[in-house]
């Protein structure tokens, strides 16, 4: 060997940034470098001849670590093969370090074992960084998973779901084991040809990405509106291998959009109703006055009087209908009283018996929130809303059922009233038109009851919504704001 190399190699070993031990066949330290001295704060003279494992793991508390390291050493010696072991040791200041050990059996020319070379690389900082990155990843994953308005999932080219991520479980209700490898069509409902899954995927293949509003389906069969973005999933060679879906739940946006649309429509129809009522009232006043004069004629025959009475009854019916028109169109502000919603409902319930309801077949379940804050409004108008909704609920259950009335504090800002029946439910088509004036599913209905309810709640700065499932029943949800700074 070159003399210069003979001088250089020991210097390289001594100054290396890795820990180096050379052990004899008994595991005792024959040689070590400066990094080992620094780590253990002992001189080579102190370390020489000592068992390396006893030096690294002197405490009984480290017995398991010692046994694990010894097992790897024994395996390496027995089978004369290199091994890698990662473990922790404490330095002279009792600070724990993560060391990645490379264990190499040293053989002579006849493959006889002469000793064992250990090179240890301190990877403590690297591990800390990995842990930090993992913590960031976990935090980010938790944040994304908590965003319930979005769901991320992927499918292969055959349309089978291969991955689902943030928000999927909370949005759709499927567990991973239930949905992975199932066809993505399981999540889709088709309203028309442009919303069919094959059409969507064809657009993605042509354009690279496609966005649309569509109804998707939860595990329980409930459909809900989403804004769906579908993109191609490309591999490292930019070759399509699947599709990535990002769905945003827009249920609340649709509700708000519908409320605005409904409000504008009601305002326009209200003006029309008021105009119609006044136009009808004028000739009706003439008819009523003429009938009154005719009835005063004592020579009026019995048969003719009977026919005029029929005309008078129908005129009265028109008069009541006009009053309903005016009540619907009237924009008067409600009286401003401090009201207890629970008390108003309790006062309304006994009135059901006056409306020929099948009360003996209907079980009324009441769940009133205790210490509910007060609301400001008109007691008579709110009573009209509740009696109307209670009557509708009972009429939806001609064979009997359960009427549930529940009050609660919604988000600490609103008094929420849920009125639920177990009737036949309302079709999706009728649900869209439910609050429209003159819309009715009853043969003798005027179609103004729910419209008036809608206007009353709106004038109380509240909202009224309806949820229904065919064969299961209907729930009306009313929210009226609490008076600020009132005790509950």
Overview of this protein structure:
By secondary structure, this protein is of the alpha+beta class. The protein folds into four domains: 3-124, PAS domain (Beta-Lactamase); 147-249, PAS domain (Beta-Lactamase); 262-329; 337-481, Histidine kinase-like ATPase, C-terminal domain (Heat Shock Protein 90), CATH 3.30.565. It has helices spanning 3-15, 34-40, 44-47, 52-56, 63-79, 124-146, 168-172, 176-179, 197-207, 251-295, 302-329, 341-348, 379-395, 428-433, 449-459, and strands at 19-23, 29-32, 83-90, 96-107, 113-122, 150-156, 161-164, 209-217, 223-234, 240-249, 337-339, 362-367, 375-377, 401-410, 414-421, 463-469, 473-481. A five-stranded antiparallel sheet has the order 2-1-5-4-3, with helices on both faces. The chain has a five-stranded antiparallel sheet with strand order 7-6-10-9-8, with helices on both faces. The radius of gyration is 41 Å and the shape is elongated. The mean pLDDT is 82.
**What is the CATH architecture descriptor of the largest domain?**
2-Layer Sandwich
Largest sheet: spatial strand order: 2-1-5-4-3
Q: What is the helical fraction, as a range of percent?
A: 40-55%
Q: Give the strand tally.
A: 17
CATH superfamily of the largest domain: Histidine kinase-like ATPase, C-terminal domain
Given the C-alpha coordinates, what overall shape results? elongated
* Poorly predicted tracts of residues: none
Q: How would you sum up the major sheet?
A: 5 strands, antiparallel
User: For the residues shown, what is the average pLDDT?
Assistant: 82
Question: What is the alpha-carbon Rg in Å?
Answer: 41 Å
Give the C-level CATH assignment of the largest domain. Answer: Alpha Beta
Strand content: 25-35%
Tally of helical runs? 15
Number of domains: 4
**CA-CA gap between termini:** 93 Å
């Amino acid at each position: 060997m070159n003399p210069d190399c003979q001088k250089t190699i020991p210097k390289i070993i001594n100054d290396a940034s890795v820990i180096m031990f050379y052990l004899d066949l008994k595991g005792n330290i024959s040689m070590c470098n400066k990094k080992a001295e620094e780590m253990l704060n002992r001189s080579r003279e102190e370390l020489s001849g000592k068992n390396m494992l006893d030096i690294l793991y002197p405490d009984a508390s480290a017995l398991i670590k010692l046994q694990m390291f010894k097992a790897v050493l024994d395996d390496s010696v027995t089978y004369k093969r290199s091994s890698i072991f990662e473990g922790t040791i404490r330095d002279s200041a009792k600070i724990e370090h993560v060391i990645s050990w490379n264990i190499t059996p040293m053989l002579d020319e006849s493959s006889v074992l002469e000793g064992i070379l250990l090179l240890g690389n301190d990877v403590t900082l690297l591990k800390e960084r990995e842990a930090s990155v993992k913590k960031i990843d976990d935090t980010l994953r938790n944040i994304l998973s908590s965003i319930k308005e979005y769901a991320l999932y992927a499918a292969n080219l055959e349309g089978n779901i291969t991955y689902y991520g943030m928000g999927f479980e909370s949005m759709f209700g499927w567990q991973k084991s239930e949905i992975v490898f199932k066809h993505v069509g399981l999540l889709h409902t088709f309203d028309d040809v442009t919303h069919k899954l094959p059409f969507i995927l064809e657009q993605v293949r042509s354009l690279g990405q496609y966005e649309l509003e569509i109804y998707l389906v939860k595990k329980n069969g409930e459909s809900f509106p989403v804004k769906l973005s579908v993109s191609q999933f490309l591999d490292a060679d930019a070759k399509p291998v699947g599709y990535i879906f990002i769905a945003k739940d827009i249920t609340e946006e649709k509700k708000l959009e519908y409320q605005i649309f409904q409000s504008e429509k009601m305002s326009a129809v209200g003006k029309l109703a008021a105009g119609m009522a006044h136009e009808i009232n004028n000739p009706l006043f003439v008819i009523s006055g003429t009938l009154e004069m005719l009835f005063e004629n004592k020579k009026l025959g019995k048969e003719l009087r009977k026919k005029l009475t029929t005309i008078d009854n129908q005129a009265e019916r028109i008069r009541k209908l006009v009053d309903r028109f005016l009540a619907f169109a009237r924009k008067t502000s409600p009286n401003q009283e401090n009201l207890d919603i629970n008390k108003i409902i309790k006062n309304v319930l006994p009135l059901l018996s006056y409306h020929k309801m099948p009360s003996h077949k209907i079980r009324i379940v009441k769940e009133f929130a205790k210490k509910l804050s007060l609301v400001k409004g008109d007691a008579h108008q709110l009573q009209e809303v509740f009696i109307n909704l209670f009557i509708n609920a009972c009429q939806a259950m001609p064979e009997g059922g359960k009427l549930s009335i529940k009050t609660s504090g919604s988000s600490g800002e609103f008094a929420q009233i849920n009125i639920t029946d177990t009737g036949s439910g309302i079709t999706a088509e009728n649900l869209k038109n439910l609050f429209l004036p003159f819309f009715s599913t009853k043969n003798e209905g005027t179609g103004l009851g729910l419209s008036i309810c809608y206007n009353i709640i709106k004038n109380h700065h509240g909202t009224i919504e309806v949820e229904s499932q065919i064969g299961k029943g209907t729930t009306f949800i009313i929210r009226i704001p609490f008076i600020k700074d009132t005790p509950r």
